[in-house]
Structure prediction request, 406 residues.
Amino acid sequence: MGALSHIRVLDLSRVLAGPWCAQNLADLGADVIKVERPGAGDDTRHWGPPFVKDSQGNDTAETAYFICINRNKRSITVDISKPEGQEIIRELAKESDVVIENYKVGDLAKYGLDYESLKKVKSDLIYCSITGFGQNGPYAHRPGYDFIIQGMGGFMSVTGEADDFEGASPQKAGVAIADIFTGMYASTAILAAVVHRDKTGQGQYIDMALLDTQIAVMANVSSAYLCSDKVPRRWGNASPIIVPYQTFPTSDGWIIVAVGNDGQFKHFVTAGGEAHLAENPLYINNPLRVENRKSLIPLLEIMTRRKTKAQWISLLEAANVPCGPINNFEEVFDNEQVKARGVQIEVPHPTAGVMKLVASPMRLSETPVEVRMAPPTLGQHTEEILRERLNLSPQAINELQTKGIT
Prediction:
């Protein structure tokens, strides 16, 4: 039994931030019902290739994007634009503890499915709205896209090669960090609201914004600006205050070298057969290495290209120089530590046969995370949920399907 096995969640969200939040709750044991549009479903069901392959190696209809954020959920299709569909959502909300949605500000009020409407049928309801810019302010009605938020929230201003590097430009992250962090914060906020409800009997409304989150997770970078009024700049993979503390090319890939003191620098260059660099008056201590990085780094890159990535990791670990590889994803999942931790899992799936997923990183000793269900096919559990939650007869369920409500 998961820690949240007593919690019911109605997930009206699509794409990434909301589904990521709901999946966290589902992994912890919550019963999550994912509401999707009949015939189309969540947008991410169509964001392929790549698609999951079946046992014969043929593409299924399941996209890699959708399956990464929707395990442990049940899928029901409901057309909320129709009164009958709205009534189904209200009845499901009445039986739920939490509602999660990421519609544009004001959209669900048109259907009577906003917080003010639903708390009339469930007074202690916890209702979490996720939008790009929040429920108030001049940008509230703008759509919020992760890429745009990474730019507006300052992340891209400090990500990418420095301006004096050829071809330098601001860069986004390789994954939608504003969406994912917002989903994580939303999960935490919902858990806090559950604790508060259990103590007081009061539900509440949670207003989550991607822009707020993106600025918050800039952490020391945001704080540095507020403390100094100096605008942070891009440094690429280098540190502005420690040299060498960056990526280096090898003969077959890239490594990270994080030299934190003069002794580690000496061990680094000695391992590479260039011990004289540690005695060079231009590089003898960190302040001088920072001052003379433009002449030092090319020399170090010549040195690191002489050996393979694996050779460097072995040499530097033996010399107690902090380092690590930059792995592609074949190397990630082949890593002995990743295998030991069981990060890749396999679950049965109705169309794929066996589906490969990434395990939740949450490890709880008494209430362990469990993959109870593979990501659902579209509407896979519609009849089951209508019978179980709303006590509808087969005839009533068939009528809803005939009308295109479900």
In short: The longest helix spans residues 177-200. The chain has two domains: 8-217+360-402, 245-249+254-325.
